[in-house]
């Protein structure tokens, strides 16, 4: 009697319940061949079924398996079903192996399969995103992407946050940058004849819409795709990406920073606990410091420093920065990293930025020059999270929008939230893909997104 089992279940039994594993004699596995090598009367398959990072070794012997010749010619990438005897091998490279008695090919893999048993460059792999999850680096990356997604949801759900699906098609430029993709069914500018009867765009943020729900449910979050028509080919920019955007009512900037710190630490713990093999892989093959780096962040107290204090440190620094330092500038990565790595020696929130370089919805401080905003800076990359207390005063918000030359017609609904039971509230945005890059040490956003969308790149 063969017992169907997954590779993950086998490893979990080996780690957690060895006695139960000892009681299993014959098993059936389904998966894909990573390698197939044989010599004479014995062969070895590395089989992976997608449930666990590690493979399981399948041994096939001419004297035992009933189709040795067919099995010895199975190509890498083929889908198979294997039945055989489970054997513990504590002295081997793997803790157990399967001694095959029969193998069925469910789907052959043609000889021009582009993944072979050698290292391929990340640039090459970007040309075949439909196949690259089968390579170890991307297998680990996209597994971790799933695990990190779950960490985000569990963190907020465990605290009673309500998950809101904000619209992907919108008429608002939530960031005021104007870098938006137009959503249209016509090829001219007569928008009154278009599908929605007005200009429509793909959203750059769910924040404005989720604020409306924060004023009902108190604590809410949105986690979904966002789009920027920014013609940038840097390793940190993509045209389509995912954003985590919580919003908390009856809360100020201090509450916001507390929430950010709790969330980052929770997510680090979660991926270390739920994707240990993947994280070990990143440590050994991608970034030898990644686990130590994120553990140090998890174990730190996040410091807090004003933007003005940071500028003072930078002006006094015995370092020649590429970009000139002056109050009112938008800090570059080199400045952010100097502050958190050299001055603080760990994570730090910079607060109270000049109003001119921040979004219109951020609360104006009493000095009239700065806003109640924060950026979380972490060693290795600089800015990781950006947040703020929102401007809850109708008259102040209206004045700021006028100063920035913003058209208020399409945002009157947003302004009305200040008239109809508004209260102080705050929130933040975390780029999910960049967070994944930080955890893994992957250096290009194109390599952490399943099908990356970047300028001149829409192949799939």
Account of the protein in words:
The protein is an alpha+beta fold. Helices cover 32% and strands 24% of the residues. The chain contains 14 helices and 16 strands. The strands form three sheets. The protein has an eight-stranded mixed sheet with strand order 7-10-11-16-15-14-13-12, sandwiched between helices. Strand 5 and strand 6 form a beta hairpin. Helix 5 packs across helix 8 and helix 7 crosses helix 9. The two termini are 44 Å apart.
Strand residues, percent: 15-25%
The helix tally amounts to 14
Give the CA-CA distance, first to last residue. Answer: 44 Å
Net shape: elongated
Per DSSP E runs of 2 or more residues, the count of β-strands stands at 16
Percent helix, as a range, is: 25-40%
Weakly predicted, low-confidence segments: none
Secondary structure elements and pairings:
Elements: E1 3-4, H1 7-16, H2 18-22, E2 26-39, E3 42-48, E4 56-61, H3 68-72, E5 79-88, E6 96-107, H4 122-125, H5 136-158, E7 162-163, E8 169-170, E9 201-202, H6 207-217, E10 219-227, E11 240-249, H7 253-274, H8 276-285, H9 290-298, E12 303-306, H10 307-316, H11 333-344, E13 348-354, E14 370-378, E15 382-389, H12 394-403, H13 412-416, E16 425-431, H14 432-440
Parallel strand pairs: 1-2, 4-6, 7-10, 12-13
Antiparallel strand pairs: 2-3, 2-5, 3-4, 5-6, 8-9, 10-11, 11-16, 13-14, 14-15, 15-16
């Amino acid at each position: 009697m063969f017992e169907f089992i997954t590779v993950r279940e086998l490893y979990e039994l080996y780690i957690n319940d060895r006695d139960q594993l000892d009681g299993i004699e014959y098993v059936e596995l389904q998966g894909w061949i990573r390698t197939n090598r044989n010599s004479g009367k014995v062969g070895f398959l590395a089989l992976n079924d997608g449930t666990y990072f590690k493979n399981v070794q399948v041994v096939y012997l001419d004297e035992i398996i009933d189709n040795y010749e067919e099995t010895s010619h199975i190509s890498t990438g083929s889908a198979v079903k294997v039945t055989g005897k489970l054997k513990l091998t504590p002295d081997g490279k793997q803790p157990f192996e399967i001694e095959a008695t029969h193998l069925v090919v469910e789907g052959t893999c043609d000889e021009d399969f582009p993944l072979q048993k050698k290292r391929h460059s990340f640039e090459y792999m970007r040309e075949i995103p439909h196949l690259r999850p089968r390579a170890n680096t991307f297998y680990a990356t996209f597994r971790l992407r799933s695990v990190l997604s779950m960490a985000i949801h569990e963190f907020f759900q465990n605290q009673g946050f309500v998950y809101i699906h904000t619209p992907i098609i919108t008429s608002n430029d939530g960031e005021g940058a104007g870098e938006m993709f137009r959503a249209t069914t016509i090829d001219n500018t007569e928008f009154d004849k278009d599908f929605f009867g007005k200009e429509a765009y793909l959203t750059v943020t769910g924040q404005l819409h989720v604020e409306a729900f924060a004023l009902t449910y108190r604590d809410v979050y949105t986690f979904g795709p966002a789009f920027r028509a920014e013609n940038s080919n840097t390793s940190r920019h993509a045209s389509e990406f995912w954003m985590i955007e919580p919003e908390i009512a009856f809360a100020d900037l201090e509450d916001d920073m507390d929430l950010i710190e709790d969330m980052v630490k929770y997510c680090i713990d979660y991926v270390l606990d739920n994707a240990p093999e993947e994280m070990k892989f990143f440590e050994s093959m991608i970034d030898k410091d990644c686990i130590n780096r994120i553990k140090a962040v998890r174990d730190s107290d996040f410091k807090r420093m004003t933007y003005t204090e940071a500028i003072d440190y930078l002006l006094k620094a015995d370092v020649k920065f590429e970009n000139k330092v002056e109050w009112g500038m938008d800090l570059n990565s080199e400045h952010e990293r100097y502050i958190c790595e050299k001055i603080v020696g760990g994570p730090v929130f910079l607060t109270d930025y000049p109003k001119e370089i921040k979004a219109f919805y951020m609360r104006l401080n009493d000095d009239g020059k700065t806003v109640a905003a924060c950026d979380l800076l972490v060693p290795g990359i600089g800015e990781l999270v950006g947040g703020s207390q929102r401007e809850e005063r109708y008259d102040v918000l209206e004045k700021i929008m006028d100063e920035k030359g913003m058209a208020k017609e399409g945002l009157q609904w947003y302004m009305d939230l200040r008239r109809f039971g508004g209260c102080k509230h705050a929130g933040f945005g975390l780029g999910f893909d960049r967070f994944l890059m930080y955890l893994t040490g992957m250096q290009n956003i194109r390599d952490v997104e399943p099908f990356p969308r970047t300028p001149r790149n829409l192949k799939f």
